[in-house]
Every structure is written in C-alpha cells, then in structure tokens.
Write a structure and sequence with these properties.
alpha/beta, six-stranded mixed beta sheet
C-alpha cells in the first residue's frame, strides 16, 4: 500500500498542503487537476526525487530515509521528461538503466517493444513523442514493479494503442499491482479508475473511491431560479446559459431538489469544469 499522511511541501510560491490518501493493492487511482494543481509535485514525492516538509510517505510500510533501495525496486514510472539517453538504442538504454533493478528482464522489454511495434536497435531520439512513451512504458513493465506511476502517457498514445494500454493496466492490477495515473483524458478514468485524487492549487478537493465520488456529487440543470433555490452551501460551481443553468452540487439527503430540475450523475470532466466555475471560492 502507498500512503500519504499529512504531507506538505513548499516549492517557491507553490505549496502542497496537508495531503493524505491511500492507494491499495490492485487499484487504479486517477490523479487529476488543472495545470499547477500539484500533480507533478505529488509524483516527485512518491519517486523520492523531493522530500516532504511535513508528514510521512510510506510504501509497503517503508520510508525513503530508511529503505530507499527497496522502495525504488517496487516502482515503475513513465514521466513526461525523457529519461533515456537520446543517442543510444532502445535495448542499449534498457540494459544500461535496467542494471539498477534486480528484477529487470531485457527479454521482457524487447518482447514488449515487438508488441508495441518498436525497433530495439532504433535510437531513442529518432522516436516520436508517443513512441518514446511506449518505450518508457515497456521499460516500466520490464522492471516488474509493484506500483506504476504514470504522468500523462495516454494523451500521446494513438487511440488503438490506448486500448492496448488499458488491457495491460487490467492485467497488471489483476496480478496485485497498483497504478497512479495522472491524465487529462478523464473519460478513461470514469471507466477504469477505482479511486480518484483531485487537486486544486495544492489542496486536496477529493480523495477516495469512485463509488464515493459518484455518491458525493450531482449535476443539476434547469432554469436558473430553480437551481438557485438549492441552498448555496451545497452549490459548488455553476454555469449560466441563455436557456438553462447547470450546477455542481455537493449531494446531501437534506436537499429537496425543486421540481423541474434535471438531476444526473457527475463525470470527472464535469466535476473539474464546474468546480473551476466557483469551487475555489468554497
């Protein structure tokens, strides 16, 4: 299990504030938020690239200050930054970086390259952006991690490979692995994620399982005066249009929705959009 407990980290004017969550085994956790929300800071903390100012991070009960080598052996990552040597071939890169992982298998890596239609001898710099991410993904799987930390890989995958990617994710989690996936493609998370972390300006707005997310929020739409009849304390963000108004509602059994309003479940994309229309004021 990955656990953040009371984590805070200041970087210049930005601060990640009092963040707590857990990612259980066999779980896909979506990490979402606008640019500058703190997603990259969270991932860098998990990778041990930076250390928290307050709080503790434990991975399988271990902390970086005590068991850094053991923790790193559990992690596979795909980052926007290009980590491989640009002038070296893909297999050459994998052999070089894989030497730091006891469980790395070159044959596994090259088998995945073949599956992903990448030439092992090709220079890394000659790949397209999407191909570079496929190569990193193959390497991340080849180190046989327990946890995959993925920063926006799917945005640069073609649609056919995106389906292929999710098949790998299902197999990985079925075997007990866990995934933390930062992505703007929230439709995928609506279908596939087990839990969600939504950050805004360094604060945690929602952390929990998807069932709780869907139970906690609703979208209401209809005439503006009907929407405004809902107590303001439950209205998180609202968008007014000429003929209809939509609002993100913190659903509660006390709410009596006026007749004439349409009530619907919330998607992650709608939540993020309507939260931006007023959530920062809450």
């Amino acid at each position: 299990m990955i656990e953040f407990s009371g984590i805070s980290k200041r970087l210049g004017k930005f601060e990640l504030k009092d963040l707590s969550f857990q990612i259980a085994e066999g779980e896909i956790c979506g990490l979402v938020g606008r640019n500058g929300a703190g997603k990259t800071t969270l991932l860098n903390l998990l990778l041990g690239l930076i250390r928290p100012d307050e709080g503790t991070i434990t991975i399988d009960g271990m902390e970086y200050r005590e068991e850094e080598k053991k923790i790193r052996a559990l992690l596979g990552c795909v980052l926007v930054d290009e980590l491989f040597l640009p002038g070296a071939g893909l297999s050459e890169n994998a052999s070089y970086f894989g030497s730091t992982y006891d469980a790395f298998e070159l044959s596994r890596f090259e088998g995945l390259l073949q599956e992903f239609r990448l030439d092992p001898a090709k220079k890394f710099r000659a790949l397209s952006k999407g191909e570079k991410l496929k190569c990193q993904f193959a390497f991340a799987l080849a180190v046989k991690p327990k946890y995959l930390l993925l920063d926006e890989p799917t945005a640069n995958f073609d649609p056919d490979f995106r389906d292929h990617f999710w098949e790998h994710m299902k197999r990985f989690t079925a075997g007990g692995g866990s995934v933390l996936l930062a992505t703007h493609l929230t439709d995928d998370l609506d279908r596939m994620a087990d839990s969600l972390i939504f950050l805004d300006k360094g604060k945690s707005i929602f952390t929990g399982d998807m069932e709780s997310f869907r139970d906690t929020y609703r979208i209401v739409s209809g005439e503006k005066y009907l929407v405004k009849m809902i107590d303001e304390q439950y209205r998180i963000g609202m968008e007014e249009a000429k003929y209809s108004t939509r609002a993100l509602i913190a659903h509660h059994r006390r709410i009596r929705y006026p007749e004439g309003l349409e009530l619907s479940p919330v998607s992650i994309e709608e939540f993020m959009y309507l939260y931006s229309k007023g959530g920062e004021k809450k």
